[in-house]
């Protein structure tokens, strides 16, 4: 696999993951804000939070890729996920102006749903594209 193909496939996979994350997050925020009786239960607030959260996620992913070259990739990933969770809590608290109990509840529910959706997408991508490793192996 040459480098251009590898980067094209990797960019496509990132686009799928961030697109899926945005859509799942938007729909969940919109519907859960109505179900949990938030003060602002409109789709525009959910769209704003989802767009900002996705943009921050892309920036954190780029920082994670850069940091993983100099420190342990697992530690960099955990730090970026923890910072992302705190930023997401702050975004929902700021845009929706709800209590911390409702904020933690909606973040936890959305996190579980996004995790399930990303694992499902990972399984489907792995099924069709195979492992996206950087090396090729030959069997004799």
Biggest sheet statistics: none
Which structural class should the secondary elements be placed in? Answer: mainly alpha
Number of domains: 1
The tally of beta strands, per DSSP, is 0
Give structural notes:
This protein has helices at residues 3-35, 43-67, 73-96, 100-129. It has one domain. Helix 1 (3-35) runs antiparallel to helix 2, helix 1 packs antiparallel against helix 4 (100-129) and helix 3 crosses helix 4 (100-129). By secondary structure, the chain is mainly α.
How would you describe this structure in keywords?
single chain, mainly alpha, 80% helix, globular
Summarize the structure.
The protein has four helices and no strands. The longest helix has 33 residues.
List the helices and strands and how they pair.
Elements: H1 3-35, H2 43-67, H3 73-96, H4 100-129
């Amino acid at each position: 696999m040459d480098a251009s193909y590898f980067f094209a496939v990797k960019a496509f996979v990132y686009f799928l993951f961030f697109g899926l994350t945005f859509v799942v997050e938007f729909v969940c925020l919109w519907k859960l804000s109505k179900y949990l009786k938030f003060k602002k239960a409109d789709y525009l607030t959910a769209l704003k939070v989802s767009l900002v959260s996705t943009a921050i996620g892309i920036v954190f992913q780029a920082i994670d890729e850069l940091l993983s070259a100099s420190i342990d990739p697992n530690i960099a990933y955990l730090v970026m996920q923890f910072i992302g969770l705190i930023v997401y809590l702050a975004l929902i608290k700021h845009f929706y102006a709800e209590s911390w109990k409702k904020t933690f509840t909606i973040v936890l529910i959305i996190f579980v749903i996004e995790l399930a959706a990303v694992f499902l997408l990972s399984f489907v991508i792995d099924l069709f594209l195979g492992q996206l490793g950087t090396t090729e192996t030959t069997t004799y």
